[in-house]
Design a protein that fits this description.
Helix content: 25-40%
Low-confidence stretches: none
Largest sheet: none
Structural class: mainly alpha
Mean pLDDT: 94
Distance between the termini: 36 Å
Radius of gyration: 19 Å
Number of strands: 0
């Protein structure tokens, strides 16, 4: 599967993220909305009525969100192009299926990336098998998807992603000729809220699940760094180098603060709201 198949295609979706998901009034959203309640800005053609001014009108969270292509899969494959406005009886079920599909597509993104990582070539066969199994699950019926134990499957996938991370980071540290204790290390889920890491050499670091909210990573070197699940809300990565980081997603980039000097992996897109400075 191409990474292009794991990107949101809003033209072939039914505005599922705008209807299925809940959000609360905050700096990211201008109002409260319950799960299954269509956003007041969603039009009958499933387009957003304020798409070009979302940030200005208090809906920054909408510009950050990414479904990894789950929206069009649910709309066009799971429900065969039958939308929830034309078939309101399917709406509740469709809205429940969507976040499950989104989790599966996120896993497909990570596995697909792991298959491109040369240091992990020894487990590529296992990764291909896991990819095929995960993709198979995305074609299940709505009823079967609702019964799926996604957490258990995520655990199986994660064991391979952890191995991939270890291979990548070990090779990077070997090239740096680093010895244990020479470089700063972090535990999974490290609390780095507002951390001052400007210009830090974080090559080969493990930042899985790290809280990097509002951290200063300007000019930092994050090559070969594991960033899966790291919270990038308002993280300043202006001028940082993330080219060979692993498991970075569009969702994370969208939540961060960057500029034209931020180096990002080739499969990701520079957010339009980033500074041009």
């Amino acid at each position: 599967m191409s990474h292009l198949s794991l990107r949101a295609d809003c033209e072939n979706c039914f505005g599922l993220c705008c209807a299925a998901l809940p959000f609360a009034a905050s700096v990211d959203f201008a109002m409260d909305k319950d799960a299954g309640q269509p956003c007041r800005n969603l039009q009958s053609d499933f387009r957003c009525g304020i798409h070009t001014s979302l940030r200005e009108q208090g809906f920054r969270g909408c510009t950050v969100y990414d479904c990894f292509g789950a929206g069009q899969k649910v709309a066009q494959i799971t429900y065969g192009g039958e939308d929830w406005l034309e078939s309101p009886r399917s709406a509740k079920q469709m809205f429940e299926v969507f976040p499950i599909m989104r989790q599966l597509h996120e896993l497909l993104w990570y596995i697909n990336e792991a298959l491109t990582v040369q240091p992990a070539s020894s487990i590529h066969d296992e990764l291909r098998s896991m990819f095929n199994e995960t993709e198979r699950l995305t074609f299940l019926s709505p009823e079967a998807l609702l019964l799926l134990d996604v957490d258990a499957h995520r655990g199986h996938v994660n064991s391979l992603l952890l191995k991939t991370s270890e291979f990548v980071r070990a090779e990077a540290l070997l090239k740096l000729k680093s010895r244990p204790g020479q470089r700063k290390t972090f535990e999974r889920g490290a609390d780095l809220f507002g951390a001052k890491l400007r210009g830090a050499d974080l090559r080969g670091a493990n930042l899985r699940g790290a809280y990097l909210i509002a951290a200063d990573l300007r000019g930092a070197d994050l090559r070969a760094t594991d960033l899966i699940g790291a919270d990038f809300r308002d993280t300043n990565i202006s001028g940082a180098d993330l080219t060979d980081s692993i498991f970075l997603t569009q969702f994370q980039l969208n939540a961060a603060i960057g500029d034209t000097n931020t180096k990002i992996p080739p499969l990701l897109t520079r957010p339009t709201h980033w500074s041009n400075v």
